[in-house]
Design brief:
Chain B: InterPro entries: Cyt_c-like_dom (IPR009056), Cyt_c-like_dom_sf (IPR036909), Cyt_C_IC (IPR008168), Cytochrome_c-type_DH (IPR051459). The complex is a heterodimer of chains A (497) and B (258). Chain A has 497 residues and is an all-alpha fold. Chain A is built from 16 helices and no strands. In chain B, 47% of the residues lie in helices and 5% in strands. Chain B has a two-stranded antiparallel ribbon. The longest helix of chain B is centred in the last third of the chain and has 21 residues. The chains are: A mainly alpha (497), B mainly alpha (258).
């Protein structure tokens, strides 16, 4: 509707709500096919990655497990787990959420939905080929870039198509004000292809010399989380927290500080993975300072989210979206504070090359990003499938299995890793003693992995039911906890989930 | 023109399965054909609040940034690409190249070990009958003009050092070493092993290199001894002292030797 026409309408609150609801329905319809394609594929890869994770985890304390299959030796299973989770699950679910958010926030239909489905197909074919390559023994010995080199151009091409669609949609925007989520998404859409192409060229295609490869490697691997997954996770939290609660985000100024401090500092933080390595002292020192400075964006975002949610925390009892996202946002604060401390040389001397680092990585990619994405899917999917979630009980099971599983995972490996590091630094402790010390904790990790797998199966089941419109048709959103209590609490205005 | 509700919303199409049908029954003034329940019940798009930044936050971030700057200053090894130990604190006097340049003797020692010690030995004693000693040598302690020429172009044929005659082949270093490197080596050998003659500056070597021109043949001892006296640059105290005392005595000694 043009402004001139809009000016002639006598806008009542009802008409306004009706108008925007219709607009949203049209926008969601444009995103339905590509976004659901990305979600379905990402849930598939989540299950594949979980299976590989369990295999790798069990092998750590039971080396004979599946020993006769060369395709599932520890080195291959572990790397295939990382790559299917990174490029199959996190990257794709992030793309789906980004495309939906971009269209919603631009108040414009998504451009080229069919082309996006093609790009999703290309992306998944590349991930499949890469995963088979890794398991079949064509792995590159570069962490986070283990796929055979031919995969990289395919992934990059698919991403560029997706980013072009997202940016063109952004260009169509009807909304004058650019909301904070859009800054993060815009950043992620440019940062990822830059990171991925530069890292592949400088390591696999035109390798730079010696230790420079290591610095490029960790610049990329760290920024994959920091400048691709983190902005998408934060964009999603910045959109859904106020959306569910129905309040404005606490402070625009804090949003600005949080975004620009992230953009400025995160890029330099990755080299702290090479503390103790043959890197010039200033480069390591600079990365440590950048890592500690990450307290600025993290603290800012944490306060902004907290002050937005404050007085409405009771909603996490009812809203699946808010429950997962609040868990994710709190984990973001935790993982970043831990990361800042871990980058200090005195701490790193102990934690480096131990299970402590593995626990830290999962706190970031799982407890923060993956949980935030689950929360986003609980919000987005019913709007695309026009069908409510089938079972609140299963959503609760999903939450407690994943939240409990990742906490068990994190605590056991953090504890084991810290003492492992101290023993490794003590020349008097025989190496086998250290290995034996970690065994109970590694078994605990396998239990945690099974819990996560149960949560993922439950979620996949719910997702499939939703796609197929199975279950009782519901009038109300699928709410955790008592529906009557919830209705009393929110009154008549809107509904959070 | 004006817009009616029908322009805002299309005609209703009853959908039994659509839970949002409820809304029509409650008498809301819009239709819900494609508006399924989640979209209708959803809150408005998020907005920004404009609360100010808390003051304690600015203070905390200020302290953090100050810490970052201090940590960078203390543990960056002078931002040099070849310093790997972050605990090496230089405060503007970094080690290696820059520091050695300030001390030509240290550079000279290193270059001597690489270029000269094979023949003249680390002890500066040479090898009896083959390579002349540098310690106490009248050639080393003597005129910078002569010494500089030996290093630049080499020396061939019989030469008498400390009363012994050697007949070797001192190679030319003029093409291989730069002026400051030659000056460092010469300064080093003039002040090591009990030798004490004034240092030689890179400017003096550059002057000699100019004077020699494009000559590529090695010198003979005789040719060097019949050189006319030349005024080297850097007419400082060291050079004057050299002219007045050391060079004079060297000439005497070397003429006595032949």
């Amino acid at each position: 509707m043009s402004d001139a026409v809009a000016a002639t309408v006598e806008w009542t609150p009802e008409k306004r709500r009706a108008y925007f609801a219709r607009e949203r329905a049209g926008i969601d319809a444009s995103t339905r096919l590509p976004v659901l394609t990305f979600f379905a594929a990402s849930v598939f890869w989540l299950l594949v990655g979980t299976t590989l994770a369990i295999i790798a985890s069990v092998k750590m304390h039971w080396p004979e497990f599946l020993e006769s299959f060369s395709w599932l030796t520890f080195g291959r299973a572990r790397s295939a787990h990382l790559d299917t989770m990174a490029y199959g699950w996190t990257a794709q679910v992030g793309l789906g959420v980004s495309l939906w958010l971009i269209a919603r926030l631009a108040r414009a239909p998504l451009r080229w939905p069919r082309l996006l489905v093609g790009a999703a197909g290309l992306w998944n074919a590349a991930v499949l080929a890469g995963a088979i390559g890794v398991l079949g023994g064509q792995m590159q010995s570069v962490e986070w870039l283990e796929f055979p080199p031919f995969v990289a151009p395919l992934l990059a091409l698919a991403f560029v198509v997706i980013a072009m669609s997202a940016l063109t949609t952004f260009g169509d925007r009807q909304e004058g004000h650019i909301y904070v989520s859009q800054w993060y998404l815009f950043g992620a859409l440019f940062w990822f292809p830059w990171l991925y192409v530069v890292a592949n060229v400088l390591i696999l295609f035109q390798p730079v010399r010696g230790v420079l490869q290591a610095s490029v490697n960790w610049w990329f691997a760290h920024n994959y989380l920091g400048l691709y997954l983190t902005p998408i996770g934060l964009a999603s939290a910045y959109y859904l927290i106020p959306k569910v609660i129905g309040r404005p985000v606490y402070s625009y100024y804090l949003s600005i500080i949080g975004f620009w401090a992230l953009a400025f500092f995160y890029n330099s933080a990755g080299i702290h993975h090479l503390i103790g390595g043959p890197m010039p002292a200033w480069l390591i020192t600079y990365s440590i300072v950048a890592s500690v400075m990450m307290l600025i964006p993290v603290g800012t975002v944490a306060i902004n989210h907290h002050m937005t949610t404050v007085n409405h925390f009771r909603l996490v009892l009812y809203s699946p979206t808010l429950r997962f996202i609040v868990f994710g946002a709190m984990s973001y604060t935790a993982v970043s504070v831990q990361g800042a401390l871990q980058s200090l040389r005195t701490v790193n001397e102990v934690s480096h090359f131990t299970h402590y680092t593995v626990a830290h990585a999962h706190l970031g990619v799982y407890a923060f990003f993956t949980m935030t994405m689950f929360g986003s899917l609980y919000y987005i999917v019913p709007r695309l499938t026009k069908w409510e979630w089938a079972s609140a009980r299963l959503i609760r099971l999903h939450f407690w299995m994943t939240a409990g599983g990742i906490m068990l995972y994190f605590l056991s490996l953090t504890w084991a890793g810290w003492y492992q590091g101290q023993m490794l630094n003590d020349a008097n402790v025989p190496f086998m003693d250290i290995v034996k010390y970690t065994l109970p904790y590694l078994r605990t990790r396998s239990i945690a992995a099974v819990m996560l797998a149960v949560g993922h199966l439950v979620f996949a089941y719910l997702f499939v039911l939703n796609l197929l419109h199975r279950g009782e048709p519901r009038r109300d959103p699928t709410i955790l906890g008592d529906v009557k209590e919830y209705r009393d609490m929110i009154g008549s205005e809107g509904a959070p989930q | 023109m004006s817009l009616s509700d029908q322009d805002l919303m299309p005609e209703p199409e009853p959908n039994e399965m659509d839970p949002s049908k409820q809304r029509r029954e409650t008498g809301e003034p819009f239709n819900v054909q494609d508006l399924h329940a989640p979209i209708i019940r959803e809150q408005a798009e998020p907005r920004d609040g404009f609360e100010p930044v808390p003051p304690w936050m600015s203070i905390f971030y200020g302290i953090l940034l100050f810490w970052g700057g201090a940590y960078m200053a203390l543990y960056s090894g002078g931002f040099r690409p070849d310093v790997y130990n972050e605990k090496a604190i230089y405060f503007g006097k970094p080690p290696g190249g820059a520091d050695e340049k300030a001390d030509p003797i240290a550079v000279g020692r290193r270059l001597y070990t690489v270029n000269c010690a094979a023949c003249h030995q680390a002890s500066g004693q040479g090898a009896a009958g083959k390579f002349p000693p540098l310690a106490g040598s009248e050639w080393v302690l003597g005129s910078p003009s002569v010494l500089g020429r030996i290093l630049l172009n080499g020396l061939q044929g019989p030469v008498s050092v400390k009363g012994e005659t050697y007949n070797g082949n001192m190679p030319a270093f003029g093409g291989r070493l730069k002026d400051d490197e030659i000056a460092s080596i010469l300064s080093f050998i003039r002040q090591e092993w009990g030798n004490s003659a004034p240092a030689i500056t890179p400017e003096q070597i550059a002057f000699i290199r100019d004077a020699v021109g494009s000559r590529s043949d090695p010198w003979s001892a005789d040719a060097l001894q019949s050189l006319p006296a030349e005024e080297l640059p850097g007419g400082d105290a060291a050079a004057k002292e050299e002219n007045s005392s050391t060079e004079g005595s060297t000439k005497k000694e070397s003429s006595g030797g032949t």
